[in-house]
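Re: fe (ii) ion structure - here you go.
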Amino acid sequence: MLGFGMYTQALDSAGAAEPQGDVDEVARLERFQARIDRDEKIEPKDWMPADYRQALIRQIAQHAHSEVVGMLPEGNWISRAPSLRRKVVLIAKVQDEGGHGMYLYSAAETLGVSRAALIEQLLAGRAKYSSIFNYPTLTWADIGAIGWLVDGAAIMNQIPLCRCSYGPYARAMVRICKEESFHQRQGYELMLTLARGSAAQRAMAQEALNRWWWPSLMMFGPSDAHSVHTAQSMRWKIKRFSNDELRQKFIDVTVPQAQYLGLTVPDPELRWDEPAQHYRAGPIDWSEFQAVLEGGGPCNRERLAARREAHEAGRWVREAAVAYAEKHGAHAEPARSG
Ligand SMILES: [Fe+2]
Ligand SMILES: [Fe+2]
């Protein structure tokens, strides 16, 4: 919590690195794009177009919120995990997601927006987060399905972000991706245990796959034809692949994993396209995606209520931390502005 001021102190000088006045906007934009094209990293103190800054704030904030809200569906099962081992693994995973949120809020702060303002937007219901977390976790198998499918889809999305043009975001993603692969493996291992268990356990695993498959495919966002931000984000190398390309990669990796589990992907139109060497999925029901995005998901209200409650319950911790930092300010310089 403390020490984030370290990132933001330098922002007063944002934009000052580039000479003003005689350099016109077009030349400056061209030089910026040339840096991107050379695969140079853009750093917080570098000049950047206002649109680039806004696009990153939007994307990183949405990502940070998703990590934090993503703790909730799985957090519901910590007290009900069937063994000590499963409980320890699940606690570690949920803690990781909280940590991911923290790295990402820090990365967003380097762009000149405060973490407090971002959290306020989330709690007020004005911020977006991944709609997958508005689905309920009904059985223990959902914990396996989330790790396998939801974290699996997150990895597909996030590995290319390690090469994102904005330095702080790219570096946060390197660390996050290492932890995401542990999340995916623990989920798959849980599914494998159920799939090799009793008939009731196999049925529970299949039923979880039935509910999580389509929402996982929707995690990649709308089809390229309907995605407003994709083209510009790709020019700026914030994104490296389109939504449909990433979704296809996920399908190609995940279908054989389902087969290995002996489970059936709930898509009667799913087929192997031999010439193209791809699995082809049936059409996605985007009306459901839109409904969940607009707040009509099974748990939208519940998730925000849980976040608000946690924020209030943690108020004394934040206040105590600030008081402590002020008291010890002379000895703990970097913590002061947190
Ligand atoms: Fe995460
Ligand atoms: Fe994760």
